[in-house]
Write a structure and sequence with these properties.
Strand content: under 5%
Number of helices: 14
Number of strands: 0
Structural class: mainly alpha
Radius of gyration: 19 Å
Amino acid sequence: MFKLSNWKHLRIPFSVYLMPVFFFALALSPNLSGDRLMIVFISLHLFLYPSSNGYNSYFDKDEKSIGGLRNPPKVTKGLYYLSLIFFAISLILGFMVNWQFSSMLLVYSLVSMAYSHPAIRLKKYAYLSWIVAGFFQGCFTFGLAYAGLSDFGWEVFTKSHVLIPGLLTSLMLWGSYPLTQVYQHEEDAKRGDITLSLKLGKKGTFLFSSIWFLVTGICFSWFFLDRNQESGFFGFLLAMLPVVLYFLIWFSFVRKDEDKYTTYTWTMWMNRISGIALNIFFVWYFLENTQVMQVF
């Protein structure tokens, strides 16, 4: 269980690319405290996400590159148990906020387990897996982070001021999710996992994502302007500029030779640029709208 190869499959650094949803929730949460902020952050990014990564890696048994691992080592039974330990720790940390937050972490984990477990394996259903992954990594995670940060419960999912920004994060993920699969067609097809990217084809994946990115940009712009936050509007556009430029350059290469340029390296650079840009923007947005010293 404590072999280095098992810990590599947890892919803890990969959690950086999922942080924008947390920081967006942080920027809008009305009842912050420093203790809850640290507990929610740690439970999500150091335990829940790594648990999900390790659990799904165990059942996928990938032989080629996966998100955050260029050369994934062979999985062992120890990885399965390690992922469950991380899962249990995340739930215990959740209880330190309230039982409802812990139950939200539980629901997220169960859905994540269903993604790769052979008994259900949502991953093999192109559109269902796309909808579920985008919703739970986006809107649901936004809601649970909002609830944990502010010491609320399940009632947050009935509030429009939570659901609307939450759905905005899902829009973004529904656009980027197929791109994360674009270099894995061969291995997914070998296992019988008909992912959305495989169904769309490589160039089709880029066209599909470009439409969703456009919709996402329009909806985020409406969100900030509706709140009379012009600085947020321009800040978001500035943050998205390097992401859009990289995407367009990547797409131009793919149109010339799709097999040569739909690779792990190109995909990971897309993740890095978008993750860094959005993390910077949402941290700035939090600082712009919050009296930080009052939180701590």
